[in-house]
Amino acid sequence: MIRLAALTIILLLAFIPIYSVFSESADSAPKVVPTSEDGVQRIDIVVDSYSYNPGHIVVTVDKPVELNLRSVTSVVPHSFVIDDPESGIEIKETVPSGKDLMVSFTPGQTGTFKFYCSKSGIFGSHLDKGMEGTIKVVE
Ligand SMILES: [Cu+2]
């Protein structure tokens, strides 16, 4: 019986890395932001060097959105910028390292827009390192 339990644990440990590979690829899939009881579309976005997770979110037009940007870096500050004029959304916020920052807005038109980090370091801009994401606004 003990052997069986040990075997089960070994098998579980062996599968954890495989699972995390799969869950990582799932995170790049569009994530529909759930609407809370108060009608606000809320989601946590993990801000790391140099990524947003989820990096592709889907929200409904004309309904308030609150993004809780959760920095998990220990030193490097990042930012969250939406400056696409088509979107009608204007956000430019710094996300301090290791802190949470809430951004809120109400998307007024449908479409697919980009958000990105406008910071740069000695090795170039974070956007060049792929620190960007997509927000899709639907009916
Ligand atoms: Cu950045």
Describe the secondary-structure layout.
Layout: H1 2-27, E1 31-32, E2 41-48, E3 51-53, E4 56-60, E5 65-71, E6 78-82, E7 91-95, E8 100-105, E9 111-116, E10 120-121, E11 124-125, E12 132-138
Parallel strand pairs: 1-4, 2-5, 4-12
Antiparallel strand pairs: 2-3, 5-8, 6-7, 9-12, 10-11
Under CATH, the homologous superfamily reads Cupredoxins -  blue copper proteins
Radius of gyration, CA atoms, in whole angstroms = 18 Å
Strand content: 35-45%
CATH architecture: Sandwich
**Fraction in helix:** 10-25%
| Largest sheet data | 4 strands, mixed
Q: How many domain units?
A: 1
Low-confidence stretches: 9-13, 16-26
- Specify the overall morphology: globular
Return the CATH class.
Mainly Beta
> Strand arrangement, largest sheet?
1-4-12-9
- The CATH topology corresponds to Immunoglobulin-like
- Helical segment count: 1
Assembly context of the chains: single chain
Q: SS-based structural class?
A: alpha/beta
Q: Tell me, rounded to a whole number, the average pLDDT.
A: 87
**How many strand segments?**
12
